[in-house]
Amino acid sequence: MNDINIQRRGFLKTSLGVATVVIAPGMLLFDMAHGKSQPVSGKVRWGMLIDTTQCREGCNDCVAACNKENGLSGGTNGQARSPLPNPLPQAGEGANDSLRETRLKSTDSQWIRKIELKDVSSGRELSLPMMCQHCEHPPCVDVCPTNASFKRADGIVLVDRHRCIGCRYCMMACPYKARSFVHEPLHDQNPDVPRGKGTVEACSLCVHRIDQGQQPACAEACPNKAILFGDLNDPESEIARKVGSVASVQVRADLRLNPGIRYQGL
Amino acid sequence: MRLLFASLLLCLCIPAVWAAETNMPKPDIGKGGQCVEDPQWMRKNHMHLLRHQRDETVRKGIRDERLSLKNCIECHASSKDDSVIARNDSFCVACHRYEAVKIDCFECHSGISKSAWLQRNAK
Fold first, then answer.
1. How far is A40 from chain B, CA to nearest CA, in Å?
2. Interchain pair A40, B60: CB under 8 A
3. What's the DSSP call for residue A79?
4. Subunit contact B108:A37, Cβ cutoff 8 A
5. Which residues of B touch A36 (CB under 8 A)?
């Protein structure tokens, strides 16, 4: 009897092991091929740690990567990067390129922008990227009359353009000036990033890339790796360990919105 | 009398069938195929699926490819111009013109298949 039981246990163990080996990769492949059929987890809190000491003045790579990934050029659609009608005097071709990149139409969307700061008393200069801070208590969500502005379970603050009526209350409420309004009809959008006239938009932390297990475009593009992206709630993640060991601040922490974007060396 | 009635009916039916055949939309279905439901069911109900799925995807992050607009476009984009909206006989436009129902989807969404868009925008 005992012998039979042991055999039975062994058989069950082996078959369970075989089943796991056979089924698990299949499920994984199915998930990859058919997209995620599960909602995002509330246990995750996506965030960024931006090391301002590594952020170079005049470098615009994160902004350019964001514009390319999300197809941002406002109403001009690709013409934004064509030669300017009256180019300002410049040192060389390179200067002209960067000028072209930074020069915006007043109606162009801007999801991320570079800010240059100078402490008047010490003369210390700083350069940092500023975008939607993905607050835990976002004021843009509070004021939205149609619930278009919302916070996803994993902490990403988004605009549901199906509901957005373009009232722009959220733009007024945001203390970080992070949101833009699309003024003109758009064409040839990235199939992963639908955008359209009459709605408000902002940094989505490249939600379409995150859902595919990739990093946001700006974090990937930064030549100095100044933008560290990850799950703030996972104690094993690089970002959580760094936030726990080095001094970092949230911009306008006095508002107690608990942004997911933190700055180091500010 | 019966003969007259029959001939009248025939006279009415023939043009009706003829007209129906000529005026019916003939959309360019692209690569086509059936991955959700049969065509007749889809003609009637595709909007409910898309409407349900869009909220699931945007608000909860459920990216089930089977019902995603992007995935529909991937197979139904015309093989001529990779689009579901570019011409009068494009997949979405043909029926929507016939039924006079305006589609808002493509005010924001791209009507071009992702693979074609990637090819066009590869530098």
1. 5
2. yes
3. G
4. no
5. 61-64
The token duo for A244 is: 């726990």
Contact between B31 and B115 (Cβ < 8 Å): no
CA distance B106 to B92: 10
Spatial separation of the C-alpha atoms in residues A199 and A169, rounded to whole Å: 11
DSSP state of A259: B
Amino acid at residue number A209:
R
ipTM: 0.79
- Nearest CA among A228, A34, A230 for reference residue B36: A34
Helix (H) or strand (E) holding A126: strand A125-131
Categorize the per-residue pLDDT at A11 as very low, low, confident or very high, splitting at 50, 70 and 90. confident
The residues spanned by each domain of chain B are 28-121
Burial of A98 per CB tally in 10 Å (0-12, 13-18, 19+)? middle
d(CA A122, CA A132): 29
Q: Number of CB pairs < 8 Å for A and B?
A: 69
pLDDT value of position A228: 96
A contacts of B121 (beta carbons < 8 Å): 190
Query: Cα separation of A23 and A30, whole Å?
Result: 10
pTM for this entry: 0.78
Burial B87-97 (b: 16+ CB within 10 A, else e): eeebbbbbbbb
Question: What pLDDT is recorded for position B6?
Answer: 74
Task: Work out whether strand A261-264 and strand A46-51 pair parallel, antiparallel, or are unpaired.
Answer: parallel
**Pick from A35, A154, A190: which is nearest to B117 by CB?**
A190
Query: Chain A residues with CB inside 8 Å of B61's CB?
Result: 36, 39-40, 152-154, 207, 211
How many other β-carbons are positioned within 10 Å of the β-carbon of residue B26?
12
CA gap B17, B110 in Å, rounded: 37
Per-residue pLDDT tens for A15-67?
766 666 666 655 555 555 557 788 999 999 999 999 999 999 999 999 999 99
A31, A32, A36: which to substitute to probe chain B, counting the most B Cβ within 10 Å? A36
Q: In sequence order, which residues have a C-beta less than 8 Å from that of residue A34 and are 6 or more positions away?
A: B64, B65, B66
- Do A249 and A258 contact (CB within 8 A), yes or no? no
